[in-house]
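Service request form, structural biology core

Requester: graduate student, group of Dr. S.
Request type: structure prediction, single chain
Budget code: on file
Notes: please return the result as structure tokens.

Sequence provided:
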Amino acid sequence: MSTTVLNFSTDINRARLTSLRRRLAAKPQAIADVAKAIGIHRGTMLRYFQHIRAEIHVTRWEKRRANIVAIYALGAGPDAPRPMSEARPVATTTARAKRAAPRPTRAPRTYCYRPQPARRDWSVAMIFGPAGATA
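Core staff response, request fulfilled:
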């Protein structure tokens, strides 16, 4: 995997940085939200965020689906601490409780097969006759 270095002195990149700063000044947003609004890949937007990291800070963390996402705002300041994930301890205790619980016993399965006459493949029946026929 090759990584390309962004040249932040080009016109398009300076325009994107300006747009990024304007959006973060107006409203704190996540990396994916800004990337979607500007119209570039969020991996590329992450590089823009890393470039201006001294100018931004994490205001809060939001849970989106299974991930905890940082919400950034323009301006220097202390980052909000990342909260601990609650999903893993809950899942672990639930799984342990499930394993420790006694399993209900099931009634034994009964199988009922009807005796059916043997059938031969049609090609074998053509040569040797139907099954059970005596020669």
